[in-house]
Amino acid sequence: MTRQSGSAAVEVALILPLILALLLAVAEITVVARTQLELVNGAREGARVAAVSPEPADAVEAVQEVLGEMATDARISVTRPHVVGESAVVAIALRHRLAPFFFGGAGVELHARAAMRVER
User: Fold this and answer.
1) Radius of gyration of the chain (CA)
2) Are 53 and 59 in contact (CB under 8 A)?
3) 11 vs 35, which has greater pLDDT?
4) Given this model, what pLDDT does residue 2 score?
5) How far is CA 81 from CA 9, 24, 65, in A?
6) What 3-state DSSP class applies to 97?
7) pLDDT digits (tens, 9 = 90+) for 68-107
8) CB 64 within 8 A of CB 92
9) What whole-number distance in Å separates Cα of residue 37 and Cα of residue 20?
10) N or C, which terminus of the chain has less Cβ within 10 Å?
11) How many whole angstroms separate alpha carbon 42 and alpha carbon 52?
12) Which residues on adjacent β-strands are paired with residue 109?
């Protein structure tokens, strides 16, 4: 019986790091997906504001409000023509750093873009 329990302990010791790595990877993918959804939401809100406000700064402020503290690292661009019916475009880019202790500080570049027709 001692041999079997010893071999079971060795098997667990070999498999446990793989299971933990897999769980960490799933958690990191979830964080990246959530961040991407927040960027899309911020771009959509910024485009909505850009469609009704002639000042691009208003759209940038709306995006920053939605993104919260992520806005400090985000690159936000607003293109708003002065012609009614043309598309106002808000684009956001953000470098998301992955877990440094597991992925060595590598990052993923996330992008979001939204467009809405200028109303006034």
Assistant:
1) 22
2) yes
3) 35
4) 55
5) 67, 45, 23
6) strand
7) 999 999 999 999 998 888 999 999 999 988 876 666 668 8
8) no
9) 26
10) N
11) 16
12) 95
Query: Which tens digits make up the pLDDT trace of 25-44?
Result: 898 899 999 999 999 999 99
**Three-class SS of residue 118?**
coil
50 residue type, one letter:
A
Among residues 114, 65, 67, 111, which one has the least CA distance to residue 88? 114
Please name which of 118, 119, 107, 114 lies closest in space to residue 63, comparing C-alpha atoms.
114
For the chain, what percent of residues have pLDDT higher than 90?
62
Q: Phi/psi class of residue 104: alpha, beta or left (left: φ > 0; alpha: ψ in -120 to 50)? A: left
The confidence score (pLDDT) of residue 91 equals 97
Please give the pLDDT value at position 95. Answer: 92
Q: Which residues does residue 91 pair with via DSSP β-bridges, in sequence order?
A: 77, 113
Residue type, 17: P
Q: At 43, list the tokens.
A: 């771009």
Could you give the CA distance from residue 57 to residue 66 in angstroms, rounded to a whole number?
14
